[in-house]
Design a protein that fits this description.
This protein is about 50% helix and about 10% strand. It is an alpha/beta fold. Strand 4, helix 7 and strand 5 form a beta-alpha-beta unit. The longest helix is centred in the N-terminal third of the chain and has 26 residues. The protein is globular, with a radius of gyration of 33 Å.
Length: about 230
């Protein structure tokens, strides 16, 4: 009887110990799976070249990657120039819109800026004095920030009248002379009027035309580039 009692007591103790072990094991914190580390892309340390303008810069009417700044990046890469080309063109922008955006462009600390504005001002018949004043302020602020500026001009269809067009066209060389900047008088040189290079609106370049536009701009900035 004593043996039976002893066995019973030991059996209870053993069962209790097993249960306690089970409770302790269940309560123990389990290791949680850790999320995989997300690789961080290295910062682009190349000098920044900003193409700052309206729809002609933005690549209106073409597919992503077909605007002239995209092609310009390819040209510079192929020639061993280590620049990061940023497209800061917005369709419909006037010189006033460009002036409103200038602080954001300066905040990027570009080394070189291609300024292309004025077409929408002219097409809307805005006062040329204000257009030239806006362009003047854009170039002045960029140069003051330390950026090198080049100007890309545009012209208007003949139905706007010779007097207005003459004054419009004269803005760009006047500003280039004042600020000692390089000038491309007509962004669409060797593009406008070339079959397949202009869209049906006869205003914007096609993807094919933008290749020539990029070549025009590359020639404009060539003396300023550094390997």
């Amino acid at each position: 009887m004593s043996l039976a009692l002893t066995t019973s007591l030991f059996g209870c103790k053993e069962a209790r110990s097993t249960a306690e072990a089970t409770v302790v094991t269940a309560a123990a914190p389990q290791p949680q799976p850790q999320p995989a580390a997300v690789p961080v892309a290295p910062a682009d340390t190349r000098p920044l070249l900003i193409c700052f303008g309206d729809s002609l810069t933005a690549g209106y009417g073409t597919e992503p990657g077909e605007a002239y700044p995209d092609v310009l990046q390819q040209l510079l890469d192929a020639r061993g120039y280590h620049y990061h080309v940023l497209n800061s063109g917005i369709s419909g922008n006037t010189t006033k819109d460009g002036l409103d955006r200038i602080a954001r462009v300066i905040a990027r600390h570009p080394q070189l800026v291609v300024v292309e504005f004025g077409g929408n001002d002219g097409l809307r018949g805005l006062p040329l004095e204000q257009t030239q004043a806006n362009l003047d302020s854009i170039v002045h602020q960029l140069q003051t920030s330390g950026a090198t500026v080049v100007l890309a001009g545009i012209t208007l269809p003949p139905d706007y009248g010779p007097d207005y067009i003459k004054k419009f066209d004269a803005m760009y060389p006047a500003l280039a002379k004042k600020y000692h900047t390089r000038l491309l008088p007509f962004l669409l040189k060797n593009v406008y009027g070339v079959p397949g290079d202009m869209q049906a609106d006869d205003t914007h370049a096609t993807a094919k035309g933008n290749k020539q536009v990029a070549a025009n701009v590359q020639a404009l900035i060539q003396p300023l580039l550094k390997h």
